[in-house]
Write a structure and sequence with these properties.
Helix content: 40-55%
Strand order of the largest sheet: 2-1-3-4-5-11
Number of strands: 12
CATH class of the largest domain: Alpha Beta
Mean pLDDT: 91
Structural class: alpha/beta
Shape: elongated
CATH architecture of the largest domain: 3-Layer(aba) Sandwich
Strand content: 15-25%
Largest sheet: 6 strands, parallel
Radius of gyration: 24 Å
CATH topology of the largest domain: Rossmann fold
Order of helices and strands: HHHHEHEHEHEEHEHHEHEHEEHEE
CATH superfamily of the largest domain: Response regulator
Bound molecules: alpha-D-ribofuranose
Distance between the termini: 93 Å
Number of domains: 3
Low-confidence stretches: none
Number of helices: 13
Length: 343
């Protein structure tokens, strides 16, 4: 008995079911931001009903744009990136695109492998929060072809767009707050390996200390948390700090995730915040206001950062597009983890 020839569902079948032209179906798949949401919904419903599967390789061969956007961030375990990626996801989804997210875990080799795998899919583009602070490495990534938007990184003279908060201003906000409360024995808990945004906020903190007429060499002690896996290292770092009296009265921590770990270690050693030590974080994660005590921190507009990165990437395909850097301002959020020094 002759086996029935299975006819592959085509774009015309989808158009017929949706009641639109095949061209409109093609636009909905390849440039969804150019099709109304209502028409896109009709076409998505017709695709589901007919079981149509766009042939990605055929579309790419015809020079059409992929709906896939690769996102590579430093540490998917840090809630900061979860909130940023929420902004990316919502904006890409509204435009009919999809985000594929990877975590480099601050490992350059892992970042390189993920970028290579993503580039092989000829994606619409890449949103990259790079591990390295070396512009040459970013230039090599850009040279591989897909449009790149840098997240939380300066574009400098690179042929890319970038979104970033002014971290120097953020670090200065933390310094002004602690020095303004009267703290003179300060400490900073920074990141190892170095992260550009963290280095900048720490430089901003030291600028603030200097501008208050204090010599950082006398008033600021530096510690470093090993990232991305904080907990194993945090106890040892806190022990080193407690073994070097006098205990600082004011601490600025590289981010809220680390400040939470530091708070946990101090509390376990009956070091009270803010009675014995005031603590300032950075990012303003959703949980920071429900810590005990609620954390004073420097807020980054996380959702807006992600949304702006996705919007810049979608416009990379426009003829008139010009690369740009979109900047955001940080904001100090004062809560109960800081107070004037008691000693
Ligand atoms: O990835 C480390 C930190 O850099 C995050 O917590 C966020 O502050 C980013 O700027």
């Amino acid at each position: 008995m002759e086996t029935p020839r299975t006819t592959r569902v085509g774009i015309r079948d989808v158009a017929r079911v949706a009641g639109v032209s095949p061209t409109t179906v093609s636009h909905a798949i390849n440039r969804p931001e150019r099709v109304s949401r209502r028409t896109r919904e009709l076409i998505e419903q017709a695709i589901a009903e007919t079981g149509y599967v766009p042939d990605a390789s055929a579309r790419l061969m015809r020079g059409m744009l992929s709906p896939l956007v690769g996102c590579v961030v430093l540490d998917i375990g840090n809630p900061f990136f979860g909130e940023v990626l929420r902004g990316v996801e919502d904006h890409l989804h509204a435009s009919g695109c999809i985000a594929v997210t990877c975590s480099s875990d601050l490992d350059p080799a892992r970042e390189t492998r993920y970028l290579s795998l993503l580039q092989a899919q000829r994606p619409r583009g890449l949103i990259l929060n790079p591990v390295t602070v070396d512009p040459g490495a970013v230039r090599r990534i850009v040279a591989q072809g897909s449009p790149v938007v840098l997240l939380d990184h300066d574009r400098a003279d690179l042929p890319v767009c970038a979104v970033k908060v002014d971290h120097r201003a953020g670090g200065r906000l933390a310094a002004d707050h602690l020095v303004g409360l009267g703290h003179r024995q300060l400490a900073i808990f920074t990141a190892d390996p170095e992260i550009l945004g963290v280095r900048e906020r720490m430089e901003g903190f030291l600028d603030g200390v200097r501008d208050a007429g204090l010599d950082p060499a006398r008033h600021v002690t530096r510690y470093a948390f090993q990232l991305p896996h904080l907990a194993p290292d945090a106890e040892a770092v806190v022990e080193r700090m407690l073994a070097r009296p006098p205990l600082p009265t004011g601490i600025f921590c590289l981010n809220d995730q680390s400040a939470t770990e530091l708070l946990r270690c101090l509390t376990r050693r009956d070091v009270a915040v803010p009675r014995d030590v005031s603590l300032v974080g950075y990012d303003d994660l959703a949980d920071s206001e429900v810590l005990s005590p609620p954390l004073t921190t420097v807020r980054q507009p996380k959702y807006d950062l992600g949304r702006a990165a996705a919007d810049l990437l979608l416009h990379e395909a426009d003829q008139e597009h010009r690369h740009e850097q979109v900047g955001f301002r940080p904001e100090l959020v004062v809560r109960a983890s800081t107070a004037p020094p008691s000693r």
